[in-house]
From TrEMBL:
Pfam families: zf-CGNR. Signal peptide: none annotated. Residues 136-178 form the Zinc finger CGNR domain. This is CGNR zinc finger domain-containing protein. InterPro entries: ABATE, ABATE_dom_sf, Znf_CGNR. Coiled coil: none annotated.
Length: 180
C-alpha cells in the first residue's frame, strides 16, 4: 500500500486511484446525460474535454458492465471480470504527452474517442486496484443500497457507502437487540 498523505487517505497509483474512483462514480451515476457525466468524470480526476449524448449512453452501458467487479467477492472471479473488461476496452499502454504535462502513461491513445478512453481508463484502474489492493473495492453492506465504492480509508475496513447507511444499519441492529 502506498504512503499516506496529509489528509491520511491512502494513495493509489493514478489508474488504481482516480481511474477506479471514476469507475465507481460511473456505476453510481443516476444519469446518463452527457453534461452531467462529463462533470462527474472530471470531478473524479479524468481529463476529458467533451462527451456527446451518444457517448454518454455508451458510457452508461459500460458502467453497467463495471458493477459486477465491485459486487464480486471471489478474487479469481473478480480478476476474470476485469480481464474481460480489459479485453473489451482494447486497453493497452501508451506514453502520452498532452496539456504541457511530462510524458505519462495512458491506456488508450490520446487520439482515441471519449468512450474508448473512458473504457480503457476505468478497466486499467480496476485492474491495478484488483492486483494491488483487492480488499479496497466493494459495495455498500446496507440492505437495499446499490452504491459501490473504492475504500480509501486509513484502515481499509469500509463496509458502507456513507455514514448515513452505516448509521441506518447500526440503529436497526440496536433496536433489534433492545426488543429481545
Amino acid at each position: 500500500m502506498g504512503p499516506l498523505c496529509c489528509n491520511e487517505s491512502v494513495h493509489f497509483n493514478p489508474y488504481g486511484g482516480a481511474a477506479a474512483q471514476v469507475a465507481a462514480a460511473l456505476v453510481n451515476a443516476s444519469t446518463c446525460a452527457a453534461a452531467e457525466l462529463l462533470t462527474l468524470i472530471r470531478t473524479e480526476g479524468m481529463t476529458l474535454t467533451s462527451l456527446t449524448e451518444e457517448e454518454a449512453t455508451e458510457t452508461a452501458i459500460w458502467a453497467q458492465r463495471l458493477r459486477p467487479v465491485f459486487e464480486e467477492t471471489d478474487p479469481a472471479t473478480r480478476a476474470d471480470l476485469v480481464n474481460t473488461l480489459l479485453d473489451d476496452s482494447a486497453c493497452r499502454p501508451y506514453i502520452s504527452r498532452h496539456d504541457g504535462l511530462p510524458p505519462h502513461l495512458h491506456y488508450a491513445s490520446e487520439n482515441a474517442g471519449s468512450v474508448s478512453r473512458i473504457r480503457a481508463y476505468t478497466a486499467g484502474g480496476l485492474a491495478h486496484l484488483v492486483c494491488d489492493a483487492p480488499d479496497r473495492i466493494g459495495h455498500c453492506a446496507s440492505p437495499g443500497c446499490a452504491t459501490v465504492y473504492v475504500d480509501t480509508s486509513r484502515n481499509g475496513r469500509r463496509r458502507f457507502c456513507s455514514t448515513r447507511c452505516a448509521t441506518r444499519v447500526h440503529v436497526a441492529q440496536h433496536r433489534d437487540r433492545q426488543r429481545v
